[in-house]
Each structure stands twice: as structure tokens, then as C-alpha cells.
């Protein structure tokens, strides 16, 4: 699981060229809750876009299983409440793969974007590869051939032996897990891959995590903006928000800001890093703030729900 998290950390967008602001200079979202609430309550079609790591769960320091379970319970409660609101579409968009969203898959009405939003899983279970990053499969095939032709072999006398090098499951990047990172043969293989990518695939870059024995080949220009731009065109949304904590979420914020003609769309960064640059226009400090703020928002009555209650009465 940690290996897949590292893949996500490596799949970052290029530093935004659009205007960004230090987190320290942003207003607290709590100070503008009434603005969020008014826009939300008066809307007809709503969309909420949540990053997972750092927003629906903590990142950074290790936590106990008990703490992780408590976070998951709160995240599920928030997402469940959000999806139960009439005319409300809710997305969890993550840089990681499908494994990372398993804890939420049984929540009715919830949509997902995985691998930076390049792969979509709709609330009805339909899956779509929104973007197939060019050359990923080609690179994977050529690296697999390099591995087969090398001297690195699995111990045939040990049925439980791990593959010396294996591909981690991702659609649009090439993560490699090395069993013995420091061996001469592994070092030679990584050096060969670096030379191969540098010569033939200049749009791709390589990030290595020696501690975790993982090498990742990826295209750094892929980000969440493409998915957000797509879904915003699907319905006449008149309220929405994005919640993200890192540079990989900047495209998501920027796409939402771009349609904010009537000031009914809100971008929120979740961060305590005062010098972090972001295009988001509001801030919260932690995932706990996300639970609190958006649970309060989704607890408010809307025009649609109020009309339903009136009709039922």
C-alpha cells in the first residue's frame, strides 16, 4: 500500500504558471461559511470534488489502525450525507489507483476519478479511461523486455520467492518495485532504464524512492483538471467546490475558478504550510476541518429538498 502512495506522490503536476497565492494570505473558509451556505441552498445542481489523501484522511506521520478507522468512519459519513442530497454530484478524485478508493465503493451515488482523474468510475459502476497517456504501454513493454533479457531472475528453487522486479498496477504510469534495491544488477537495470527513458521518451520523468525500493516513470504534465473540466460540462451546475491539499490538486482548483462567473464556486486548499503556493481561494487546516465544514454545509436544507418536503406535506 505504501508503494502505491509513493506513486501518487510522484505523479505531481508541473508547478502552475497561473497566478498563485501563499496559503498564509488566503482567508479561512470558516469566515465565508455563510457565502458557501447561501450559494449551496439556492442552487439547483451541485457538485463537490474531494481529494482523498490529506483531505478525507490524514497524511504524513504514521497513525494507528484505530485512528485510521476513525478517519474512515468520518469520511464515509460525510460522503454518504453528501450523496444523499438531491441533485448533488460528489466525486473523490485521487492520484492513486483503484485500490485506494475501495473503502468508499459501496457508498451509493459516489463517483471516482483515479490516477489523477485519468480513469473514471461512475456511481453506477461504469468505468472509463478518460485519458490514455500516450506511450505508457509501449514503455512498459520495452522495460519488461529489458528485464527478461537481463541477468535478474527469480529463484526457481524457491516457490515463495518474490519477483526481483515487478510492475505495480497503474494505467497511466510505470511504477517498478525492486526486491533488492542495492544489488549491482538492480542498480545496473535502473541506470539502463534511466538512459533509455532519457534518450527515447523525453516527455517522461523518473522518480525513485530508495527506502521503499520503488522507481516510477511518469508524464508530469497529467493532472486532475481534465476530469473536472469534463464533468462540469455534463450538467448545468450552479454551485460547486473543490477540496485539495497539494500541487496535484491545483488543476482541479483552477478549472473550478475558471467558471466562477457568479461567485457560486469555491476552491479550498487544506494545508498548514504558510508558504505553499495555490490558486485555491479559501483554506482549511486539516482533514478534521473538512469533515466539520462540509458536514455542516450538507446538513443545510436546499431549495430542492425544501420543495420536496412541502410537496410531501
Give the name of the CATH superfamily of the largest domain.
HAD superfamily/HAD-like
H-E string: HEHEHEEEEHEEHEEHEHEEEHH
Number of domains: 2
Radius of gyration: 21 Å
Task: Tell me, rounded to a whole number, the average pLDDT.
Answer: 89
Counting DSSP E segments of at least 2 residues, the number of strands comes to: 14
Report how far the terminal alpha carbons are from each other.
50 Å
The structural class is: alpha/beta
Number of helices: 9
The CATH architecture term of the largest domain is 3-Layer(aba) Sandwich
CATH topology of the largest domain: Rossmann fold
Runs in which pLDDT lies below 50 for 5 or more consecutive residues are 8-17, 306-313
Beta-strand residue percentage? 15-25%
Largest sheet: 8 strands, mixed
The amount of helix comes to 25-40%
Strand order in the largest sheet: 6-5-4-3-2-11-12-14
Shape: elongated
Q: Any idea of the CATH class of the largest domain?
A: Alpha Beta
Molecular structure report:
Helices cover 34% and strands 19% of the residues. Residues 8-17 and 306-313 have low confidence and may be disordered. The protein has two domains: 18-130 and 224-312, Rossmann fold, CATH 3.40.50; 136-218, Hypothetical Protein Ta0175, Chain: A, domain 2 (Alpha-Beta Complex). The chain is elongated, with a radius of gyration of 21 Å. Strand 11, helix 7 and strand 12 form a beta-alpha-beta unit. It has 313 residues and is α/β, with parallel strands linked by helices. An eight-stranded mixed β-sheet has the order 6-5-4-3-2-11-12-14, sandwiched between helices. The protein has a four-stranded antiparallel β-sheet with strand order 7-8-10-9, sandwiched between helices. The protein has helices spanning 2-10, 33-41, 65-83, 136-149, 184-200, 225-232, 250-258, 287-298, 303-312; strands spanning 21-22, 46-50, 88-93, 110-114, 119-121, 127-129, 165-167, 174-178, 205-209, 214-218, 239-244, 265-270, 277-278, 282-284. The chain contains nine helices and 14 strands.
Amino acid at each position: 500500500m505504501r508503494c502505491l502512495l509513493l506513486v501518487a506522490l510522484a505523479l505531481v503536476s508541473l508547478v502552475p504558471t497561473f497566478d498563485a497565492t501563499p496559503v498564509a494570505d488566503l482567508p479561512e473558509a470558516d469566515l465565508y461559511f455563510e457565502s458557501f451556505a447561501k450559494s449551496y441552498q439556492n442552487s439547483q445542481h451541485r457538485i463537490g470534488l474531494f481529494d482523498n489523501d490529506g483531505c478525507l484522511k490524514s497524511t504524513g506521520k504514521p497513525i494507528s489502525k484505530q485512528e485510521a478507522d476513525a478517519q474512515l468512519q468520518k469520511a464515509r459519513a460525510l460522503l454518504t450525507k453528501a450523496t444523499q442530497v438531491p441533485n448533488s454530484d460528489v466525486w473523490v478524485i485521487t492520484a492513486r489507483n483503484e485500490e485506494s478508493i475501495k473503502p468508499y465503493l459501496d457508498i451509493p451515488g459516489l463517483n471516482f476519478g483515479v490516477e489523477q482523474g485519468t480513469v473514471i468510475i461512475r456511481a453506477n459502476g461504469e468505468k472509463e479511461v478518460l485519458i490514455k497517456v500516450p506511450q505508457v504501454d509501449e514503455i512498459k513493454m520495452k522495460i519488461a523486455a529489458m528485464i527478461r533479457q537481463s541477468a535478474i531472475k527469480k529463484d526457481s528453487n524457491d516457490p515463495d520467492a518474490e519477483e526481483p522486479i515487478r510492475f505495480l498496477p497503474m494505467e497511466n504510469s510505470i511504477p517498478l518495485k525492486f526486491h533488492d534495491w542495492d544489488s549491482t544488477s538492480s542498480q545496473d537495470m535502473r541506470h539502463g532504464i534511466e538512459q533509455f527513458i532519457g534518450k527515447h521518451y523525453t516527455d517522461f520523468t523518473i522518480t525513485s524512492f530508495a527506502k521503499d525500493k520503488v522507481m516510477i516513470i511518469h508524464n508530469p504534465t497529467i493532472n486532475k483538471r481534465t476530469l473536472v473540466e469534463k464533468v462540469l460540462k455534463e450538467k448545468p451546475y450552479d454551485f460547486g467546490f473543490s477540496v485539495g491539499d497539494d500541487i496535484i490538486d491545483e488543476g482541479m482548483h483552477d478549472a473550478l475558478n475558471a467558471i466562477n462567473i457568479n461567485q457560486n464556486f469555491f476552491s479550498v486548499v487544506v494545508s498548514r504550510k504558510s508558504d505553499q503556493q495555490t490558486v485555491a481561494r479559501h483554506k482549511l487546516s486539516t482533514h478534521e476541518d473538512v469533515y466539520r465544514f462540509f458536514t455542516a454545509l450538507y446538513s443545510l436544507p436546499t431549495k430542492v429538498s425544501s420543495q420536496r418536503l412541502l410537496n410531501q406535506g
